[in-house]
Write a structure and sequence with these properties.
This protein is mainly α. It contains 11 helices and no strands. The chain has a single domain, classed as MetI-like fold (Orthogonal Bundle), CATH 1.10.3720.
Length: about 280
């Protein structure tokens, strides 16, 4: 029987109380869902006319191809560019040279403080001309790159600083230059530390593509707007689009966790630690 060293095992009364809390929570959630379903029924949200677009091949194709696919393309470019942006400016903020460090600090702090929706509007009207191909698409991508890249710059900086100082000192001791220490020693270890934050920011970038409707953007929210304007089915459309976003984010999180386990070797570490603990207990 395993005993936790972090906290006391709950007794019979505590376990009974936790079960009661669980039952009350489940009942409350079921009651809430039933109330929502009742309100939908009363307001006619389950009528066929409101759900017809999501059963029609033409509108399904528009949601998946013109909506979801374009949204994934925007998120893909934004995430890739944001990682590069964050890496460059995050390392720049760690520079020993003030003429590199301070401009990087200004850029990161500025774009991290400006709301994404304002960045999209600014870039749409101030950077791209009206006749630029894909003006809305690239306005969204650039805005998401600047904002998420600024956040990732802090993530990269914090990840590098979280690596034990002895790693860098040992690398300098064997004659490595600072560039080699950063690229060969610190960054590979820092990436493993900051993978959860990178995953979270990828999800944020994907969700923030929905803000592109303010610049007549493309993607899921644009297609959803056209559908509910034509059929006056705001609630069904929002439910369907939300389900698509949730599904994609779950897949993205699952993929990122797989990558994390492959890079960090979480299961192997836990297995080795458990085996060592078992041997110590037997001894």
């Amino acid at each position: 029987m395993s005993v936790s060293v972090l906290f006391d095992e709950p007794g019979p009364a505590t376990r009974a109380r936790h079960r009661a809390y669980t039952v009350v929570t489940v009942v409350a959630l079921v009651a809430l869902l039933a109330f929502v379903a009742y309100k939908f029924q009363v307001t006619g949200q389950f009528e066929y006319d409101k759900w017809e677009p999501f059963l029609t091949p033409r509108y399904i194709r528009a949601l998946l191809v013109d909506g979801l696919l374009v949204t994934l393309q925007m998120a893909f470019f934004a995430i890739i560019f944001a990682v590069v942006f964050g890496l460059v400016f995050g390392v720049g903020k760690l520079s020993d040279h003030a003429w590199v460090r301070w401009p990087c600090w200004v850029v990161v702090e500025f774009f991290r403080a400006v709301p994404v929706i304002l960045l999209m509007i600014l870039i749409f009207f101030a950077v791209f001309s009206p006749d630029t191909p894909g003006r809305s698409f690239w306005s969204i991508v650039v805005a998401l790159t600047l904002y998420n890249g600024s956040v990732l710059a802090e993530v990269f900086r914090a990840g590098v600083l979280a690596v034990p100082k002895g790693q860098a000192e040992a690398a300098y001791a064997i004659g490595m230059r600072k560039t080699q220490v950063m690229t060969l020693v610190l960054l590979p270890q820092a990436v493993k530390i900051m993978i959860p934050a990178l995953i979270s920011q990828c999800v944020v970038a994907l969700k923030d593509t929905s803000l592109g409707y303010v610049v007549a953007g493309v993607g899921l929210t644009r297609v959803a707007k056209l559908i509910y304007q034509g059929f006056a089915n705001h609630v069904p459309t929002i439910l369907v689009v939300s389900a698509l976003y949730i599904l994609v984010n779950l897949l993205l999180t699952w993929l990122a966790v797989k990558v994390q386990r492959k890079l960090v070797g979480e299961k192997k570490i836990l297995t080795v630690a458990a085996a060592g603990a078992g041997q110590d207990a037997q001894a």
